[in-house]
Amino acid sequence: MPLAHGEKLSTYRIQALPSSHLLKVLGFRKGTQFTIQSKQPFKGPIVVKVGNRSIAIDYDIANEILVEEVVQN
Questions:
Q1: Of 68, 12, 64, which Cα lies nearest the Cα of 37?
Q2: Which superfamily does CATH assign the domain made up of 3-69 to?
Q3: Phi-psi group of 24: left, alpha or beta (phi > 0 → left; psi -120 to 50 → alpha; rest → beta)
Q4: 15, 19, 11: which is closest to 30 by C-alpha?
Q5: Count of CB atoms situated within 10 Å of the CB of 8
Q6: Nearest CA to 68 among 10, 14, 18?
Q7: Closest of 26, 16, 73 to residue 47, by C-alpha
Q8: For residues 4 and 57, is the Cβ–Cβ distance under 8 A?
Q9: Residue 16 belongs to what H/E stretch?
Q10: Whole-angstrom Cα distance, residue 12 to residue 21?
Q11: DSSP-derived pairing of the beta strands 11-16 and 46-50
Q12: pTM value?
């Protein structure tokens, strides 16, 4: 599912993403786990936490990042 459709406070793992050097620099790589901290209304940015960093991702880019939910016990 696209990251843009994820739920706030849920944890996900990246399956595929567009080839963007900026995403890699920010720590977004295939297999990376992160948590959605907030989703802004009206197709605004999605703020995710990767490690100790919070990163805002544009809605259109988030729509191109494919993720799977990580079920935590």
A1: 12
A2: Ferrous iron transport protein A (FeoA) (2.30.30.90)
A3: alpha
A4: 15
A5: 11
A6: 14
A7: 26
A8: no
A9: strand 11-16
A10: 21
A11: unpaired
A12: 0.89
- Residues comprising the chain, all counted: 73
User: pLDDT of the chain along its 73 residues, tens only?
Assistant: 999 999 999 999 999 999 888 988 888 899 999 999 999 999 999 999 998 999 999 999 999 999 999 987 6
Q: Are strands 66-69 and 46-50 parallel, antiparallel or unpaired?
A: unpaired
Distance CA 54, CA 66 (A): 19
How many Å is the maximal CA-CA distance in the chain? 34
6: CB partners within 8 A, 6+ apart? 12, 36, 39, 46, 67, 69
Handedness of CA 58, 64, 65, 69 (dihedral sign): positive
Q: How many CA atoms within 13 Å lie on the side-chain side of 7?
A: 7
